[in-house]
Amino acid sequence: MAKTAAKYIEVFFEEKEISYEMYEIEVNGELHMIHTNAVINLIKQASKTEQETIANTLRKIDFVNGNVTHYLKFLAEAYIKTNY
User: Fold this and answer.
1) Distance CA 74, CA 16 (A)
2) How confident is the model over 6-20, as a mean pLDDT?
3) Alpha carbon distance 22, 32 (integer Å)
4) Suppose 50 and one of 25, 46, 62, 76 were both cysteines; which one would form an S-S bond, judging by CB atoms 3.0 to 4.6 Å apart?
5) Rounded to whole angstroms, how far apart are CA atoms 3 and 5?
6) What global pTM score does this model have?
């Protein structure tokens, strides 16, 4: 049985060595700062559909041994631009 997206995300972030950073994102002339931990928490609170999309992207990044930090920054920017 396949893992649910939420379970995959939980295990992924428990097992991977993630570079924890503070992302600086400028929107409309205002600087916003968001930490990797906050982005991960937002992912865990996302809707089931959003979690499935994120989990699929994380699988692809993991498969090619890519840098998940770039994706987390992308998600941080999307969150800030959507909410501020």
Assistant:
1) 18
2) 94
3) 10
4) 46
5) 6
6) 0.92
| pLDDT 10s digits, 18-61 | 989 999 999 999 999 999 999 999 999 999 999 999 999 999 99
Using only C-alpha atoms, what is the Rg of the chain?
13
The amino acid at 78 = A
Q: What is the DSSP string of 7-74?
A: HHHHHHHHHS-----EEEEEETTEEEEEEHHHHHHHHHHS-HHHHHHHHHHHHHHHHTT--HHHHHHH
The separation between the first and the last C-alpha atoms of the chain, rounded to the nearest angstrom, is: 40
Amino acid occupying residue 19:
S
Under 8 Å CB-to-CB from 82, ≥6 apart: which residues?
none
Tokens at 52, concatenated? 């499935």
Distance (Å, whole) CA 33 – CA 50: 22
